[in-house]
Amino acid sequence: MTALTLSTAAASGLRADAIVVGVAKGSKGAPVVAPGAESVDKAYDGKLASVLETLGATGGEGEVTKLPAPTGFKAPVVLAVGLGTVPEKDETYGTDALRRAAGTAARALTGTKKAAFALPLEDADDAGAIAEGALLGAYSFDAYKDQIGAKSAKKGAKDAKGPLGEVALLGGKPRDKAYKAAVENAIAVAEELNRARDLVNTPPNDLNPEAFAAVAQAAGKEHGIKVQVLDEKALAKGGYGGILGVGIGSAAGPRLVKLSYTSSKAKKHLAFVGKGITYDSGGISLKPAGHNETMKCDMAGAAAVFAAVVAAARLKLDVNVTGWLALAENMPSGSATRPGDVLRMYSGKTVEVLNTDAEGRLVLADALAKASEDKPDAIVDVATLTGAMVLALGNRTYGIMANDDAFRTAVHEIAEEVGEPSWPMPMPEHLRKGMDSPTADIANMGERMGGGLVAGLFLQEFVGEGITWAHLDIAGPAFHEGAPFGYTPKGGTGSAVRTLVRLAERTASGDLG
Asked: pLDDT digits over 148-170, tens only?
């Protein structure tokens, strides 16, 4: 992973391959050099903005312009990255604008050994945002690239560049406790978020439920997290009909993994529950061609939960955090669950399976019921659950549903604060009737219109009485198929990790109830 340091060095004297500066769009449309780059601008005789304008730069968000560094600089290149519109008077560049700009710059410097970032940096929060953006933007997944080709690339080939090697944050205060804490926090969160991305990007032939559980066990040993794994026999003995019903059609058996991070100073307990379908073919209700090629990402919710629990442990937060990974592979076979079958869930309720491709809610139902037994102060589940939510909110925004309006609002505000676009969604009671079954307590399908809301109503049936609960449907932003932007790469994104970690931080500090 990219190394990161705080530096008080002058931009001109720092040995690096590039100096990164910010540029914003002024009121008249011309670029304006952002704070942090004053010494660089001075070296251009105060004409950096006009030079950039001549080169076509506007300061628009995501824009990158490279130019030769001024005479006397040890770095050969200056990279100007767009921050968007100049803030109004008495306002500052938002932390997510800085985060996105740092990510854009880090991506643009792929193959570079070291870069100095001279972006607007007014306080420790800014330092943390820039650090996080740079580390997330520098992410690359190349575990399956041709190693022979990679070795030859080291000898001069241009097609196998590694990520940016090192970032120095200019204007940082390496001896200031707040700055150091912000950067250390950013490193821990970014490393675990990138681990979640790795898991989502790993092909399903290498990441089945057993393999995912093994990853969790290894992380538990490393970070002092207690890990319990229930295999097929234990699941059958415990009556986990939902998880077993989904995983029964695959040669790779299902797992339920519990990760427990505890703090001696904790006054609150959070439970995170993640959908972990390591590959979703749809089962007997088989997905058509064009809809199954990226279904290795259907475990992104479990990856987010796993990463959040490990990050909480690394940050030593004063809150108990339990993560539940409901892992299964949904495959068609002679032993697979059929449409029309009835499953008896862990909670004791029976579910008529009308569509085996609505499997995520089945594994989550068992995990939610089990998590409720610990009586946590709140449960948050995360899942790539419905295409309906993508139709409603698009590819970059996830939906939030909850059984408590204040909690839903709190989660939404936290998500927006950390830069994860989200939107609160309703839970209309009239949609529950559509899941009535003549055979079982409930069906796993209801009305087609509002399908994302129907799924949330189904999950609510399995949350323990009196427990505050929220559901994050990350089906849109969990896997990005377009061109990279900001700090978001192509492929797994690590969606919801930062929301969960910040929720744990807020709970630990007593800011949430």
From this structure: 545 544 544 445 588 999 999 99
DSSP structural state of residue 254: -
Who's near 430: CB < 8 A, 6+ residues apart?
none
Q: Which residues are catalytic?
A: 287, 361
Give the containing element (helix H, strand E) for 320.
strand 320-330
β-strand pairing of 320-330 with 226-230: unpaired
Cα 331 to Cα 313: distance, rounded to the nearest angstrom? 34
Residues in the chain: 513
On the 0-12 / 13-18 / 19+ scale of CB atoms within 10 A, 375 is exposed
Q: Do 323 and 501 form a contact (C-beta atoms < 8 A)?
A: no
298-341 residue pLDDT tens = 999 999 999 999 999 999 999 999 999 999 999 999 999 999 99
- How many H helices and E strands in the chain? 15, 20
* Helix/strand/coil for 16: coil
The angle formed by the CA atoms of residues 213, 217 and 219, to the nearest 5 degrees, is 115
For residue 28, the one-letter residue type is: K
Query: One-letter amino acid identity for 266?
Result: A
What is 106-128 written as a DSSP string?
A: HHHTTT-SEEEEE----SHHHHH
